[in-house]
Design a protein that fits this description.
Oligomer: single chain
Largest sheet: none
Protein name: Transposase IS3/IS911 family protein
Organism: Thiocapsa marina 5811
Number of helices: 7
Helix content: 55-70%
Order of helices and strands: HHHHHHH
Radius of gyration: 32 Å
Number of strands: 0
Structural class: mainly alpha
InterPro entries: Homeodomain-like_sf (IPR009057)
Strand content: under 5%
């Protein structure tokens, strides 16, 4: 695997991204760098640009009660008011949305040991059923193939035993 310097990568990215917007196939032909590598670099650069910056108030500094208070405060705000609130507090709307979801699921019933055991048993039985289905399909295929071989060689079906291969 070829390693490229960060300077080369940065210069290629400036050509790939706006305002230059040179096509990947054209750059691949010019530089000799594989298309997949260029597409990956572009995808990474665009993803990095779209990702929100780290918040000024990280999750770790707010305890559960403060997060709940933020959720309650913002429950009645419209989108514009929520944006202003987030700017004022140094938060992101995505954070508040995630906290709201966590609060909504806070009182969901926990699965008991018997429910977990039943789920595990269902999964085990499902895997066993899939294994047996595959074995059955393989056996059916072998029987069909055996019948076709007999038809090709014009061997009577009752002349050989399917299990032992010996003549009767």
């Amino acid at each position: 695997m070829t390693t490229y310097s960060s300077e080369l990568k940065d210069s290629i990215l400036t050509k790939l991204l706006a305002p230059n917007n040179v096509g990947v196939p054209q750059l691949a032909a010019q530089t000799g760098i594989p298309r997949d590598t260029l597409y990956g670099w572009r995808r990474e650069a665009l993803g990095r640009a779209r990702r929100p910056r780290a918040s000024t108030v990280p999750d770790a500094t707010l305890d559960s009660e403060e997060k709940f208070a933020v959720v309650v405060e913002t429950a009645t705000l419209n989108e514009l008011e929520l944006g202003a609130y987030c700017r004022r507090k140094g938060l992101f709307a995505e954070q508040i949305s995630a906290w709201r979801t966590t609060c909504q699921h806070a009182n969901a019933p926990l699965a008991s040991k018997t429910e977990r055991a039943e789920r595990a048993e269902i999964l085990r039985l499902g895997r066993e059923l899939q294994r047996k289905d595959r074995a059955l399909a393989e056996a059916a295929t072998l029987l069909v193939l055996q019948k076709k071989v007999r038809a090709i060689w014009e061997e009577p079906e009752d002349a050989r035993s399917p299990m032992s291969g010996a003549y009767k």
